Amino acid sequence: MKDITAGIIHIIAEYLGKDDSELTAEDKFLDIGLDSLDIMELVMQMQEEFDCKIELTQEITTIGKLSELIASQQQ
Amino acid sequence: MLQGKTAVITGGTRGIGRAIAKAYAGNGANVALAATRRTPEAEEFVRELRDRGVRAELYVCNVSDQEQVTGLAEAVLQDFPRVDILVNNAGITRDNLLPGLSAADIDDVINVNLKGTIWVTRAFIRSMAKQRSGVILNVSSVVGLMGNSGQCNYAASKAGVVGFTKSVAKEYGRRNIRCNAIAPGYIATDMTAALGADKSEEIAKALPLGRLGQPEDVADLALFLASDMAGYITGEVIAVDGGMYI
């Protein structure tokens, strides 16, 4: 889980041109400047990175929740 | 008008696509042309475009085949640093009255004209979204707006292109990607030549402007829409039809 969260943070930080340390699992996508198109783009990258199918829902609004979803999809 | 930009044009070696390629290359754009076959005529056309001092490449791709479309996008984005303009022009007809349309007539037309437009757009939209700019032009048809006896499949596919165009315009406007459709009327190309000279003349006489359109008439609009002069136009469907549909 920790690895997944760190991986997600790294991908998002790179996309936003930030340092990994500037993001946390509690961050909401909207608050860090990601809109639905950004999230779709990032999810496509993450699917390749984590080798899983990510089916996003409206409830997935934070890095932590996305991490949980990916962990469950990978099992 | 398009100096240094790169345009991908499907169905880019014949008819309207060919005229658009000429207009773009003549205005400084590099062009990547997709066609279903690599014919000597197509190769010659690419050489002609290169003589205008731009880069021109030909790619073989059936736009109704998702895998081929993915391959096209990969190849183009490898050969060119970026794609600024995408013209979804590839199209076919399989005309008949509704009861006479076979399943293949319907599938082929929807697969190339509508789904092909969707696949190719999807293949290039990520790179445009990343670069925060792009222009997409979809070649619909006036038939998609007004309907036409004997072209139920074609009209449905072209009306579908209109809905797709407007949706892409809404979805990607905030990424500075403009998406518009052109609705040609009766344009003198191989596609319309199939109707015969008598029929063509009859149609021309009935048009307010009294003549058939030329591929260059459509290319002029495609040039304008791809240029910065159309920078505030998106989600529009513009007819080039000599007044056929008023």
Brief sketch in words of this structure:
Chain A is mainly alpha-helical and about 80 residues long.
Description:
The complex is a heterodimer of chains A (75) and B (246). Chain A contains three helices and no strands. In chain A, α1 (2-16) packs across α2 (36-50) and α1 packs across α3. Chain A has helices spanning 2-16, 36-50, 63-74. The termini of chain A are close together. Chain B is α/β, with parallel strands linked by helices and 246 residues long. Chain B has helices at residues 15-26, 40-50, 66-79, 103-131, 143-146, 152-172, 190-193, 197-206, 215-226; strands at residues 6-10, 30-35, 56-60, 85-88, 134-139, 177-184, 237-240. Chain B is globular. Classes of the chains: A mainly alpha (75), B alpha/beta (246). The interface between A and B is small, with 4 and 7 residues.
What fraction, in percent, of the residue positions of chain A are helical? 55-70%
Q: Any idea of the CATH topology of chain B?
A: Rossmann fold
Secondary-structure-derived class of chain A:
mainly alpha
Give average pLDDT of chain B, whole number. Answer: 96
Q: Kindly provide the radius of gyration of chain A, computed on alpha-carbon positions and rounded to a whole number of angstroms.
A: 11 Å
Query: What is the number of independent domains of chain A?
Result: 1
| Domains of chain B (count) | 1
CATH superfamily of chain A: ACP-like
Q: How would the blueprint of this fold be written?
A:
The complex is a heterodimer of chains A (75) and B (246).
Chain A: H1 2-16, H2 36-50, H3 63-74
Chain B: E1 6-10, H1 15-26, E2 30-35, H2 40-50, E3 56-60, H3 66-79, E4 85-88, H4 103-131, E5 134-139, H5 143-146, H6 152-172, E6 177-184, H7 190-193, H8 197-206, H9 215-226, E7 237-240
Parallel strand pairs in B: 1-2, 1-4, 2-3, 4-5, 5-6, 6-7
Helix pairs in contact in B: 1-9, 3-4, 4-6
What features would you highlight for this structure?
heterodimer; A: 75 residues; mainly alpha; Non-ribosomal Peptide Synthetase Peptidyl Carrier Protein, Chain A; 3 helices; globular; B: 246 residues; alpha/beta; Rossmann fold; 7-stranded parallel β-sheet; 9 helices; 7 strands
